[in-house]
């Protein structure tokens, strides 16, 4: 029935196709597409820094401290790099026989391998599988896949792999390529490179590997976990014998030799020693994170491309922090189920914002895991009072010794009623005492007087994350919607230690690549004017009192003057009126700012701290400061404790107070005489004209 219509359509379409020469246009379109793809991939290959590949594979990424001394190296997917002359010819022959027989006769790729890849692509598309099930990659392709690309099995990645392989072949000799491949291959059990694999599995060096041993290692390349001789001895032996047969096929060994070797047992021996120099794990993690987020590097590049990364690390500070975090006597007792109280500390140079030490938790460290010093978001408690209340108050006409109301007071339509910790109210108290003793009622009263918006704007200038929902009086006591991290708190307090200027915290000073090119060099440090030096000085004088006579007195480092603030937050719904969720201490000198936090990761009725006074972090903070401050310049403060200044002021003003009092008495007598005269005139007027 449809035949006539089909014939008519076919005839009409044929004339149309012929008339507009669509075959030629189709060929042009395909060629254009091939040209564009080829040009794009060629450009990517040319700009992939292939010339740096050998240097990147040979070198380890090292971290340097503030004095340009090597502090350690990063975990890397590489082992001990040795030249090809130090790798047994047995290994070279075994690998080439197994992985790429035409290695010395091809230019980075195999035509047969590409054809096989296209066939498998078509097959998988028909089966609705979006990957390539193999593809006959050459050694060069495998090298560039591991060095430059991801492990995803797609056609796009395959094409990139081919073009990069061609570029590598243009730059390096076959010997260099084979050396890079063998030094960069993975052999299971966390071992990279043939030299370390020889030690791990046979207790020998790469240059002394026998033919059977070389065949074992070559056989592992397709499946390091499945064919390693320690975990799977029989599978390893079977695979080894296959490799020996392939070596006989290519003429690397004779058939009789292969048969003899196949009968030998596999004897393993382990002399490998892991070269772990990830000495400062939380600091190194933070460096990696900053290199990724700020400078656009990938984790793989950082770990494997042989960079030199220069930081602000102070190894004395860092070592002491790490030691202290292992000392259980400096922390509250564990919960009844054994859960540890967690903690985090960070030390910052207030002048340049460089982080000099950081520890993000207690217990076993996980590579690039949770760092509480940089990632927690907890309510800051009373540590926010200097930022949200007292700094803006000084900027708006108050003085460090201004009298503040200390009464239990309700505010607003919701009757917000802040309470002092001890439920004691003295009626009035000077500002410096209210801060040092961390009394809540005067802080909220003062924020209400100067206006919530001024406090809110001040907190923003200090760099803490606040939202519109934080525009309320609870801001005075640290009631933030998002919370902050210890590093954010330390950065905020750099403003007090640095004459009113806050400095952004950061870790990296310089990055040099494997070829010696400087890719990051002393980046500009952002600073923010938060307050005047005069206000900063007054704030420091008040916060010296925190450690001299206030809530931080038990945390004061022996023999040193430190300014700062303590803080704590309540643990809700625990049934314990004294239960605490977070405890903070932040302290500073002109040389260093240290912020420390304690608490449980998950707070509930069985996991909370005690003693809401906020001094519970004292032992840890005190020890940390006593071990940090001796290594600083010990620059003195340019002011004294506010209570000392207040007493001196009262003493020096006593004479003038008496003079003023005498003058006041004379004035009172004159005023009284005038009042009596007025009264007499009034009485006479009433008698005469009343």
From TrEMBL:
Keywords: Carboxypeptidase, Cell membrane, Cell shape, Cell wall biogenesis/degradation, Glycosyltransferase, Hydrolase, Membrane, Multifunctional enzyme, Peptidoglycan synthesis, Protease, Transferase, Transmembrane, Transmembrane helix. PANTHER family: BINDING PROTEIN TRANSPEPTIDASE, PUTATIVE-RELATED, PENICILLIN-BINDING PROTEIN 2A. It comes from the Bacteria. One of its GO terms (cellular component) is outer membrane-bounded periplasmic space. GO terms for molecular function: penicillin binding; peptidoglycan glycosyltransferase activity; serine-type D-Ala-D-Ala carboxypeptidase activity. Pfam families: Transgly (PF00912), Transpeptidase (PF00905). Residues 73-247 form the Glycosyl transferase family domain. Residues 345-591 form the Penicillin-binding protein transpeptidase domain. In the N-terminal section; belongs to the glycosyltransferase 51 family. It comes from Secundilactobacillus folii. GO terms for biological process: cell wall organization; peptidoglycan biosynthetic process; proteolysis; regulation of cell shape. The lineage of its organism: Bacteria, Bacillati, Bacillota, Bacilli, Lactobacillales. It catalyses: Preferential cleavage: (Ac)2-L-Lys-D-Ala-|-D-Ala. Also transpeptidation of peptidyl-alanyl moieties that are N-acyl substituents of D-alanine; [GlcNAc-(1->4)-Mur2Ac(oyl-L-Ala-gamma-D-Glu-L-Lys-D-Ala-D-Ala)](n)-di-trans,octa-cis-undecaprenyl diphosphate + beta-D-GlcNAc-(1->4)-Mur2Ac(oyl-L-Ala-gamma-D-Glu-L-Lys-D-Ala-D-Ala)-di-trans,octa-cis-undecaprenyl diphosphate = [GlcNAc-(1->4)-Mur2Ac(oyl-L-Ala-gamma-D-Glu-L-Lys-D-Ala-D-Ala)](n+1)-di-trans,octa-cis-undecaprenyl diphosphate + di-trans,octa-cis-undecaprenyl diphosphate + H(+). This is PBP1A family penicillin-binding protein.
């Amino acid at each position: 029935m449809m035949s006539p219509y089909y014939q008519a359509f076919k005839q009409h379409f044929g004339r149309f196709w012929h008339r507009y020469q669509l075959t030629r246009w189709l060929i042009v379109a395909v060629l254009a597409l091939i040209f564009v793809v080829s040009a794009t991939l060629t450009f990517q290959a040319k700009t992939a820094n292939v010339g740096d590949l050998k240097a990147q594979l040979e070198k380890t990424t090292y971290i340097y401290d503030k004095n340009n001394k090597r502090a350690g190296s990063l975990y890397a997917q590489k082992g001990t790099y040795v030249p090809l002359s130090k790798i047994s010819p047995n290994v070279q022959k075994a690998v080439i026989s197994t992985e790429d027989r035409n290695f010395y006769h091809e230019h980075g790729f195999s035509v047969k391998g590409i054809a096989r890849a296209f066939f498998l692509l078509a097959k998988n598309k028909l089966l609705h599988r979006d990957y390539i099930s193999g593809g006959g990659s050459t050694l060069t392709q495998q090298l560039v896949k591991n060095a430059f690309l991801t492990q995803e099995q797609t056609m796009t990645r395959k094409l990139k792999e081919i073009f990069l392989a061609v570029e590598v072949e243009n730059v390096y000799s076959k010997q260099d390529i084979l050396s890079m491949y063998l030094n960069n291959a993975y052999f299971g059990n966390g071992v990279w490179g043939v030299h370390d694999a020889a030690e791990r599995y046979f207790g020998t060096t790469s240059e002394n590997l026998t033919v059977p041993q070389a065949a074992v290692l070559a056989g592992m390349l397709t499946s390091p976990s499945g064919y390693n001789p320690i975990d799977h001895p029989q599978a390893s032996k079977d695979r080894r014998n296959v490799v020996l047969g392939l070596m006989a096929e290519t003429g690397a060994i004779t058939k009789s030799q292969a048969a003899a070797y196949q009968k030998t047992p596999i004897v393993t021996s382990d002399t490998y020693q892991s070269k772990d120099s990830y000495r400062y794990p939380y600091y190194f993690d933070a460096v990696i994170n900053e290199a990724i987020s700020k400078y656009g590097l990938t984790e793989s590049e950082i770990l494997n491309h042989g960079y030199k990364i220069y930081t602000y690390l102070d190894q004395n500070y860092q070592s002491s922090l790490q030691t202290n975090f292992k000392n259980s006597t400096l922390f509250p007792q564990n919960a009844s189920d054994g859960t540890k109280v967690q903690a985090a500390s960070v030390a910052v140079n207030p002048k340049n914002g460089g982080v000099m030490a950081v520890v993000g938790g207690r217990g076993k460290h996980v590579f690039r895991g949770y760092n509480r010093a940089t990632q927690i978001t907890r309510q800051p408690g009373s540590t926010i009072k200097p930022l949200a209340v007292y700094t803006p108050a000084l900027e708006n006409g108050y003085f460090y010794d201004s009298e503040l109301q200390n009464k239990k007071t309700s505010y607003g339509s919701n009757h917000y009623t802040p309470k002092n910790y001890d439920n004691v109210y003295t009626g009035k108290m000077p500002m410096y005492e209210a801060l040092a003793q961390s009394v809540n009622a005067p802080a909220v009263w003062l924020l209400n007087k100067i206006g919530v918006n001024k406090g809110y704007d001040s907190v923003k200038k200090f760099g803490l994350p606040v939202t519109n929902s934080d525009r309320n009086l609870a801001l005075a006591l640290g009631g933030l919607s998002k919370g902050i991290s210890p590093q954010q708190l330390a950065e905020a307090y750099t403003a007090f230690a640095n004459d009113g200027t806050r400095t952004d915290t950061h870790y990296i000073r310089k990055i040099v690549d494997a070829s010696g090119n400087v890719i990051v060099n002393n980046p500009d440090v952002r600073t923010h004017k938060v307050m005047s030096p005069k206000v900063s000085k007054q704030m420091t004088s008040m916060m010296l009192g925190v450690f001299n006579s206030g809530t931080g007195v038990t945390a004061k480092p022996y023999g040193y003057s430190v300014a700062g603030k303590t803080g704590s937050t309540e643990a809700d719904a625990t049934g314990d009126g004294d239960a605490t969720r977070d405890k903070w201490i932040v302290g500073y000198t002109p040389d260093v700012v240290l912020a420390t936090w304690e608490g449980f990761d998950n707070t509930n009725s069985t996991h909370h701290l005690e003693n809401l006074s906020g001094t519970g972090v004292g032992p840890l903070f005190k020890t940390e400061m006593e071990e940090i401050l001796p290594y600083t310049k010990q620059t003195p403060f340019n002011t004294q404790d506010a209570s000392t200044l207040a007493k001196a002021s009262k003493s020096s003003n006593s004479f003038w107070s008496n003079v003023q009092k005498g003058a006041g008495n004379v004035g009172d007598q004159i005023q009284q005489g005038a009042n009596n005269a007025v009264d007499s005139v009034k009485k006479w007027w009433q008698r005469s004209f009343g």
